[in-house]
Amino acid sequence: MNKQSGYSLIEIMVATAILGVVMFGLVATFTANQKTHVTVGQVTSTQQNLRVVAEMIENDLRMSGYLVPDQAAVCLGDSGVGPDTLYLSDSDAILSVAQIQATDPELLGGEFGVPITNITSGTAVGGSSMDLVLSKRWIDFGSQADFKLGAGVMVVDRNDDEGRVVCGTISGVVFNSGDGVTLNVDFNTAPVTFGATNLVDLVAVPALVYSIAVPEAGTSDRYQLRRNGLLIANDVEDMQLALFFDHDDDGVVESGEVEGDDGSAVGDGISITHSPAAVDGRNLKQVRLSLVMSSDREDPDPKTPLSQQQVTGNRDPQSIPEPDRKKRRTYESTVRLRNV
After folding, report:
1. Which of 9-13, 59-63, 183-187 has the lowest mean pLDDT?
2. Where do the structural domains in the chain lie, given as residue ranges?
3. Dihedral angle sign, alpha carbons of residues 267, 271, 273, 277
4. Is 287's pLDDT higher than 50?
5. Which of 63, 90, 157, 304 is the most exposed place for a label (fewest CB within 10 A)?
6. For 251-272, how does the pLDDT look when each residue is reduced to its tens digit (9 = 90+)?
């Protein structure tokens, strides 16, 4: 009788158990590596997107104030309980100096702005929605309309010795007979009464608008950074601005002009709320930009601690949304304006 070799039941069970332990370890390692890969990818993508967004805003800031009144370079819709709204003069709406010099050099002798015909001296501008009737639809002789639906507009008085400005977003455009145009503007700043002591020279300046659309609580909507109402980037959760002035006109923003209580710096603390009517915008020299951007998804590891959205600028910490497991990155830079 031949003896047959083989494995006993006990040997099979032991081998199976060892194989199970090895497979469990391999799966756990693969899962951990996959989670790490996803997290690192999200963080890298967030950093890259944030850098691109910041460069876009910084480039527009550097060009603001081009050939317009100095107080129309930048206007801030300051909010202590949410993202700020940034208005800055649209340099793309004006042809280059070389083009103007070659076509109509007399235009270079003044500050660009389209006259407003329906507002008289002593009338308050801003604070709510109102119509602006402009004498023409172009600032210069370019072929494109400078004032567009969803874009911004800044109103200044070129005779104003206080350097005030009001700003808002264009919600309606009606082209009148000839070259005139009527704009319906939702103003985002406190009202200003121009011409109380002098004759007004009210003009409208086309502006770029950077704003953040905040999703409603309980929805799956994402934060959206918009430029003139058009989506630029998702997941930009906060934008805070601080403005710094050179009130003694010595070409330097000193420490006393940064943290002083005289309105030298605005948007630099919860107690310092910016009002364009309270500060001379002609002395603006620097703008500090602070951004917060999150990953598009939460960390897949349920053991990851919850994180709170970072607080920057003059935002009240109580207004920050509930913690989650998204990864966040912040960006801060100070931009010196070239054209003021």
Report:
1. 9-13
2. 44-336
3. negative
4. yes
5. 304
6. 666 555 543 334 445 554 445 5
